[in-house]
Amino acid sequence: MSASKAIQKEKRLEDIPGIGPATAEKLREAGYDDLMSIAVESPKALAEICEIGESTAAKIINAAKELIDIGGFESGEAILERRRNIARLTTGSKALDELIGGGLETQAITEFYGEFGSGKTQIAHQAAVNATLPEERGGLNGEVLMIDTENTFRPERIVQMATALDLNPQETLKKIHVARAFNSAHQMLLVEKANELAREKPIRLLIVDSLTAHFRAEYVGRGTLAERQQALNKHMHELLRFGDVHNAVILCTNQVAAKPDAFFGDPTRPIGGHIVGHTATYRIYLRKSKAGKRIARLVDSPSLPEAECVISVTEEGIRD
Ligand code: GTP
Ligand code: MG
C-alpha cells in the first residue's frame, strides 16, 4: 500500500458525523471508500446512489470536506506577507552562498545532487549546525529535523563542526532531531511527524538525505515509473508545504545514476528526473575536484544565472 493511501485510510467513513456502519457499508458498496471521494461528490448523485435524502447527502459531503485537508486559497496580501519573512541560511562557504543568491532560502527546496563522496551529506551536516546559529552569524536561530534514509548521520561530525564555530557541541546536538526512514512510505509519514514536532520546537531546517534512495530501490522496472514519480511528487509538495508553513529551509540530497539507469540513460542525471527538478527551487550539482575541493554548479534556476564555484570539505566543515 502506498503512503498516501495509508494516510487516507487513517480517517474512515465512520468518522463522518451522521454516518453509521450501515450507511458506510452502502457507500463502500457504491465505491466510495475514502473521504476524498465523498467530499468531491454532488449531493444529488450521493443521494441517488446511497438511497438517502439530498439534504442528508449534503450534510455528509460537508462533513467529509471538513475532515480532509483540501487546502485553499490565500489572499495575495497574505502571500506577500509570508514572502517578506523569507530568510537565508549560510552554507559555511561565502562562494556557495553567493552562487544561490545569499544562502539557502527558506520556503524553498534546495537539492544537492552528485555522485558518492561528492559532499552532499557533509553539506547537510554543516547546514544543520549553521541553522542553530544566531541570525547575525548567518543562522536561523532554530532547530533542525533530519530524515536520514541511509544511516549517514554522524553526531561526532556535528561536534567537530560546532566546536569549529565556538558553539557548545552538546547544546547543538540537542537542537538536531534525526529520524531514520526505513522505506519510502515511512519517509513520507515522517514529514507529517515533522509538522507535529514543528508545533513545539522552532524548526527552521528540514533535511532529507537522501530524497530518492528508497524510491529508487523500491520502484524497480519501467512499469513502476509513473507510480514512483507520483509518490515522489506528493512527497516533494509536502516538503514544500512544510517550508512555507514554518518558514523553513528544505535541503534534499539526490544521487546521480552511477551507471546507466533503467529510467534515465544519462549517468549525470539526478534520480527522479524532472519531477524533482520542477519542484526544487535550487538545484546544485556537486562534483569532486582535487584535495578536498568540490565544484558546485547551480543548475537551471529560474532567477539566477547558471554558474559554478569551488568549496572545500575540511576538518572544520564546509568552507571556501
Ligand atoms: P553518498 O551519500 O555516498 O552519495 O555521498 P555524499 O555526497 O553524501 O558524500 P559525503 O558528504 O559523505 O562526502 C564524503 C567525503 O567528505 C569524504 O570522502 C571526505 O572527502 C569528506 N569528509 C568527510 N568527513 C570529513 C572530515 O571529517 N574531514 C575532512 N577533511 N573531510 C571529510
Ligand atoms: Mg551521503
Structural features, described:
By secondary structure, this protein is α/β, with parallel strands linked by helices. The chain is built from 14 helices and eleven strands. A hairpin with a 2-residue loop joins strand 10 and strand 11. Helix 8 crosses helix 9 and helix 11 packs parallel to helix 13. The longest helix is centred in the C-terminal third of the chain and has 22 residues. The chain is elongated. The N terminus is likely disordered. The site of guanosine-5'-triphosphate has 14 residues, from helix 8 and strand 10.
Tell me how many strands there are. Answer: 11
Bound compounds, please?
guanosine-5'-triphosphate, magnesium ion
The residue ranges in which pLDDT falls below 50 over 5 or more consecutive positions are 1-9
Provide the helix percentage. 40-55%
User: In whole angstroms, how far apart are the ends?
Assistant: 46 Å
* Major β-sheet profile: 9 strands, mixed
Mean pLDDT, all residues: 88
Label the structural class.
alpha/beta
Structural Rg: 22 Å
Topology pattern, helix = H, strand = E:
HHHHHHEHEEHEHHEHEHHEHEEEE
> What is the tally of helical segments?
14
Strand order of the largest sheet: 5-4-6-7-3-8-9-10-11
Share in β-strands: 15-25%
Overall spatial form = elongated
